[in-house]
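Tokens help. Consider this.
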Amino acid sequence: MDGVQFHGMRGGDASDLQGDYVREIDPEALDALARADTPEPPAQSARSRRVRIAPPMPRPGKPAAAPVIAPVVLDEPLPPTRKGRGAAINPPNRFERQEQAPFDDGWATLDADFTDLPPLPTTLTRDASRSVISYNQSPDIGFDRAVNPYRGCEHGCVYCFARPTHAYLGYSPGLDFETKLLFKPDVAELLEKELRKPGYVARPMTLGSNTDPYQPVERTLKLTRAVLGVLDRFSHPVSIVTKSAGVLRDLDLLRDLAGRNLVRVWISVTTLDATLARRMEPRAATPMRRLQAVEALARAGIPVGVLAAPMIPGLNDAELEKILEASAKAGAKTAGYVLLRLPHEIKQIFEDWLHRHFPERARHVLELVRETRAGALYDAKYGQRMSGTGAYADLLARRFDRAARQFGLQERPELDCSAFVAPMAARRGFAEAQMSLF
């Protein structure tokens, strides 16, 4: 990577931070980018290119129809992907009415444009949100509140269900999601303010519900660590979901929280195949490094579970039992899984990725996905979106249940919500400031 660019910094000048950010994203400094032990993905192969046809303008009071994707067969190779990035395309978000698409003008300029593409830089923009706790009422999610210090995720996982959220910011869920990041510099202060509101009732807070709290930039910004510091002082329970070994940098805070039954860490392990992981999750930690993180957390007395997610039919689902066995040996005490989810723009991004990296099995994988989604590529119904339906999905669920029992991954202890209290020192300081007015 060439470095990190800045937008929206206070005072309009980030020169004092530029050096730190460059070191953060330096490939030689990040374990997630040191993949010399795995071979390069195979060369690009020919496939059908997709053309997006804009639907007619909706009538007042009626939602817009979804764009139609029509296959157009072209006997030419796909343009190369950007090095170190998961998505190869930047499709327009679903709120836009127009899109730009490359085409060959007969002068071979298209091939020239896609030759030796330079690495895309990562840009950071200050998020000026005035609240940081997001609540949900989804009946099939095991938490009702979360904090996300970052929007967008540089890990670049091609299957990430959070990609469509970037459309709300005016960005594409494709390459923009993994290169145009937003960060909340005041996240700790805003969180403390919300926790002090009268009537606030503590329930487990989730970090990593949308984007990874330990993505590479956390090494420099330390926003997740700041959030954990607030939750520690308030004795607030927290659940962390990550696929980064960077969680070990906060071992001191996690150990303190674990001593009061206030934390559980979930490590996402999608595959044990380093080559496949490199293609799906180009800037995340290697599978072995994640298992080492599980072992380190367990050894430190921190409750740790593993998420075999997502399970992609015909691609990594055959590894389910092996992932759970390896996780149990590393010290995990609980596990979960989620079937591949392809809401909104991810359908196009994932299908494009499949044809680039696995052209020989792309059709089979997509057919299996449709088999688990009642003939579609995705079904957003509550109770079905996480696990799917049909014989293939039922078999996957039974396989998981059997393996979880076999390897002892069924612990489900509840975190302690009764210890929550606003720090007395902070309250006393506030009271003293009030008395000084009289």
About this structure: The two ends are 58 Å apart (CA to CA). The mean pLDDT is 81. The domain at 122-406 is CATH 3.20.20.70 (TIM Barrel).
